[in-house]
Design a protein that fits this description.
Elements lengths: L14 H18 L4 H8 L3 H8 L7 H11 L3 H11 L16
Helix pairs in contact: 2-3, 2-4
Length: 103
């Protein structure tokens, strides 16, 4: 289970919140695959320490490294976005400012 707060509307979130959410998704997928941090890091060409920092939202991850982690986990890179969206559905759509419904 992914455990983090925020991401209710990505445009209003800070980089830290986005990093934490992505890290939680990475960790969740790794744990679901029953893989250790060391195994995935080695296969992705990262140090376990760096991958741990990414999973905790403390380090940025480059596109190349994210692709390597996805490959190591057997996950399509685009699925990370889908996992983020499923874990944090957007708030109900609000009408634009000044919108008046028809009567």
């Amino acid at each position: 289970m992914i455990r983090y707060q925020g991401m209710s509307f990505a445009y209003s979130e800070s980089a830290q919140v986005v990093r934490a959410a992505l890290g939680a998704v990475l960790r969740g997928r790794r744990e679901a695959a029953r893989r250790t941090l060391t195994e995935v890091a080695a296969e992705a060409g990262l140090s376990p320490a760096h991958l741990s920092e990414v999973e905790r939202g403390r380090k940025e991850v480059s596109t190349e490294r994210l692709l390597a982690v996805a490959h190591a986990l057997g996950v399509r890179p685009a699925d990370f976005s889908a996992y983020l969206a499923m874990a944090n559905p957007p708030p109900k759509a609000r009408p634009p400012i000044g919108f008046q419904p028809r009567r």
